[in-house]
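G., the chain you wanted modeled:
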Amino acid sequence: MRLAAFALVFAAVACAGSEPAVTVSAIKAVEDAINTQFAHDAADPVDSWEPLGDARGTYLPGYGTLFTFEMSLVNVTPVLPFHPVVLPQEIKTAHARKVKKLPVLKSAMRDLIVKSATTLTSLPAAEQITVEAFLDYFSFEDRTGLPRRLIMTASRQKIMDALAHHAGAAGFATLIEERDEQ
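Predicted structure as C-alpha coordinates:
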Protein backbone atom coordinates (compact mmCIF):
# COMPACT_ATOMS: atom_id res chain seq x y z
CA MET A 1 0.00 0.00 0.00
CA ARG A 2 2.84 2.40 0.87
CA LEU A 3 4.57 1.57 -2.40
CA ALA A 4 1.41 2.42 -4.36
CA ALA A 5 1.05 5.73 -2.50
CA PHE A 6 4.73 6.54 -3.13
CA ALA A 7 4.33 5.75 -6.84
CA LEU A 8 1.27 8.00 -7.07
CA VAL A 9 3.07 10.90 -5.35
CA PHE A 10 6.15 10.38 -7.54
CA ALA A 11 4.04 10.41 -10.72
CA ALA A 12 2.28 13.62 -9.63
CA VAL A 13 5.59 15.35 -8.89
CA ALA A 14 7.12 14.17 -12.17
CA CYS A 15 4.16 15.47 -14.17
CA ALA A 16 4.01 18.77 -12.30
CA GLY A 17 7.29 19.96 -13.77
CA SER A 18 6.67 18.84 -17.34
CA GLU A 19 5.45 21.01 -20.16
CA PRO A 20 1.73 20.77 -20.92
CA ALA A 21 0.84 18.98 -24.14
CA VAL A 22 -0.79 22.16 -25.45
CA THR A 23 1.04 25.46 -25.09
CA VAL A 24 -0.45 28.70 -23.86
CA SER A 25 0.30 30.29 -27.24
CA ALA A 26 -1.71 27.58 -29.05
CA ILE A 27 -4.62 28.11 -26.68
CA LYS A 28 -4.35 31.88 -27.25
CA ALA A 29 -4.42 31.38 -31.03
CA VAL A 30 -7.74 29.53 -30.81
CA GLU A 31 -9.14 32.11 -28.36
CA ASP A 32 -8.22 34.85 -30.86
CA ALA A 33 -9.90 32.91 -33.69
CA ILE A 34 -13.10 32.64 -31.63
CA ASN A 35 -12.99 36.35 -30.73
CA THR A 36 -12.51 37.24 -34.40
CA GLN A 37 -15.26 34.88 -35.59
CA PHE A 38 -17.82 36.32 -33.18
CA ALA A 39 -16.73 39.97 -33.12
CA HIS A 40 -19.43 42.64 -33.24
CA ASP A 41 -19.95 43.90 -36.79
CA ALA A 42 -20.45 47.67 -36.69
CA ALA A 43 -21.58 47.57 -40.34
CA ASP A 44 -24.59 45.41 -39.33
CA PRO A 45 -25.34 46.40 -35.72
CA VAL A 46 -28.83 44.84 -35.69
CA ASP A 47 -27.99 41.27 -36.75
CA SER A 48 -24.40 41.26 -35.53
CA TRP A 49 -23.14 38.90 -32.85
CA GLU A 50 -23.01 40.51 -29.43
CA PRO A 51 -19.96 39.05 -27.65
CA LEU A 52 -19.96 39.44 -23.89
CA GLY A 53 -16.25 39.29 -23.17
CA ASP A 54 -13.38 37.33 -24.65
CA ALA A 55 -13.21 33.60 -25.25
CA ARG A 56 -11.36 31.54 -22.66
CA GLY A 57 -9.56 28.30 -23.29
CA THR A 58 -7.77 25.72 -21.21
CA TYR A 59 -6.05 22.39 -21.63
CA LEU A 60 -7.20 19.53 -19.39
CA PRO A 61 -4.60 16.72 -19.45
CA GLY A 62 -6.15 13.43 -20.47
CA TYR A 63 -9.29 15.12 -21.84
CA GLY A 64 -8.26 17.85 -24.27
CA THR A 65 -9.07 21.50 -24.75
CA LEU A 66 -12.11 23.48 -23.69
CA PHE A 67 -12.98 26.89 -25.13
CA THR A 68 -15.88 28.91 -23.78
CA PHE A 69 -17.44 32.20 -24.74
CA GLU A 70 -20.58 34.15 -23.92
CA MET A 71 -22.71 36.06 -26.39
CA SER A 72 -26.11 37.18 -27.54
CA LEU A 73 -27.00 35.80 -30.96
CA VAL A 74 -28.08 39.26 -32.13
CA ASN A 75 -28.38 42.75 -30.67
CA VAL A 76 -31.62 43.15 -28.72
CA THR A 77 -32.81 46.57 -27.55
CA PRO A 78 -33.00 46.43 -23.76
CA VAL A 79 -35.36 48.42 -21.60
CA LEU A 80 -33.79 51.86 -21.27
CA PRO A 81 -34.97 55.19 -19.86
CA PHE A 82 -35.78 56.40 -23.38
CA HIS A 83 -37.30 53.00 -24.33
CA PRO A 84 -39.10 51.98 -21.10
CA VAL A 85 -41.36 49.25 -22.54
CA VAL A 86 -40.54 46.47 -24.95
CA LEU A 87 -43.44 45.97 -27.32
CA PRO A 88 -44.77 42.48 -28.14
CA GLN A 89 -43.74 42.92 -31.78
CA GLU A 90 -40.18 43.74 -30.72
CA ILE A 91 -40.08 40.52 -28.68
CA LYS A 92 -41.34 38.49 -31.67
CA THR A 93 -38.87 40.14 -34.03
CA ALA A 94 -35.92 39.54 -31.70
CA HIS A 95 -36.93 35.90 -31.26
CA ALA A 96 -37.23 35.36 -35.01
CA ARG A 97 -33.81 36.93 -35.60
CA LYS A 98 -32.22 34.70 -32.95
CA VAL A 99 -33.87 31.53 -34.28
CA LYS A 100 -32.55 32.43 -37.74
CA LYS A 101 -29.04 33.05 -36.37
CA LEU A 102 -28.78 29.79 -34.34
CA PRO A 103 -27.86 27.56 -37.33
CA VAL A 104 -25.22 30.13 -38.31
CA LEU A 105 -23.71 29.85 -34.81
CA LYS A 106 -23.71 26.05 -35.00
CA SER A 107 -21.97 26.08 -38.37
CA ALA A 108 -19.38 28.60 -37.14
CA MET A 109 -18.68 26.48 -34.04
CA ARG A 110 -18.16 23.35 -36.21
CA ASP A 111 -15.74 25.31 -38.40
CA LEU A 112 -13.86 26.47 -35.30
CA ILE A 113 -13.42 22.88 -34.11
CA VAL A 114 -12.04 21.87 -37.51
CA LYS A 115 -9.65 24.84 -37.61
CA SER A 116 -8.62 24.19 -34.01
CA ALA A 117 -7.63 20.63 -34.85
CA THR A 118 -5.02 22.00 -37.24
CA THR A 119 -3.93 24.79 -34.89
CA LEU A 120 -3.50 22.60 -31.80
CA THR A 121 -0.79 20.44 -33.34
CA SER A 122 0.58 19.23 -30.00
CA LEU A 123 -2.83 18.10 -28.71
CA PRO A 124 -2.72 14.30 -28.44
CA ALA A 125 -4.81 12.76 -31.23
CA ALA A 126 -7.10 10.84 -28.87
CA GLU A 127 -8.02 13.95 -26.88
CA GLN A 128 -11.00 16.22 -27.46
CA ILE A 129 -11.61 19.74 -28.68
CA THR A 130 -14.67 21.26 -27.01
CA VAL A 131 -16.25 24.61 -27.80
CA GLU A 132 -19.03 25.90 -25.55
CA ALA A 133 -21.22 28.95 -26.16
CA PHE A 134 -23.20 30.48 -23.31
CA LEU A 135 -26.11 32.38 -24.85
CA ASP A 136 -27.40 35.44 -23.03
CA TYR A 137 -31.00 36.63 -22.97
CA PHE A 138 -32.92 39.48 -21.38
CA SER A 139 -35.71 38.44 -19.01
CA PHE A 140 -38.39 39.74 -21.40
CA GLU A 141 -37.20 37.63 -24.33
CA ASP A 142 -39.03 34.63 -25.75
CA ARG A 143 -36.54 31.73 -25.49
CA THR A 144 -38.72 29.11 -27.16
CA GLY A 145 -36.46 26.79 -29.16
CA LEU A 146 -33.31 28.65 -28.12
CA PRO A 147 -30.67 27.01 -25.92
CA ARG A 148 -28.92 28.58 -22.95
CA ARG A 149 -25.73 26.64 -23.73
CA LEU A 150 -24.46 25.02 -26.91
CA ILE A 151 -21.61 22.54 -26.59
CA MET A 152 -19.70 20.85 -29.42
CA THR A 153 -17.00 18.21 -28.96
CA ALA A 154 -14.88 16.14 -31.31
CA SER A 155 -11.80 13.99 -31.13
CA ARG A 156 -8.81 15.66 -32.76
CA GLN A 157 -7.93 12.37 -34.47
CA LYS A 158 -11.36 12.03 -36.09
CA ILE A 159 -11.20 15.61 -37.38
CA MET A 160 -7.66 15.12 -38.74
CA ASP A 161 -8.71 11.87 -40.45
CA ALA A 162 -11.70 13.64 -42.04
CA LEU A 163 -9.43 16.45 -43.22
CA ALA A 164 -7.08 13.90 -44.80
CA HIS A 165 -10.06 12.42 -46.66
CA HIS A 166 -11.28 15.88 -47.74
CA ALA A 167 -14.58 15.59 -45.87
CA GLY A 168 -17.18 18.26 -46.44
CA ALA A 169 -19.28 20.14 -43.92
CA ALA A 170 -21.77 17.25 -43.69
CA GLY A 171 -18.95 14.81 -42.94
CA PHE A 172 -17.62 16.99 -40.13
CA ALA A 173 -21.12 17.46 -38.73
CA THR A 174 -21.37 13.70 -38.17
CA LEU A 175 -18.06 13.65 -36.26
CA ILE A 176 -18.86 16.53 -33.94
CA GLU A 177 -21.04 15.74 -30.94
CA GLU A 178 -23.52 18.53 -30.37
CA ARG A 179 -25.48 19.16 -27.19
CA ASP A 180 -27.62 22.06 -26.15
CA GLU A 181 -29.17 22.86 -22.80
CA GLN A 182 -32.24 24.90 -22.16
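Confidence is low (pLDDT under 50) at residues 3-13.

Shout if anything looks off.
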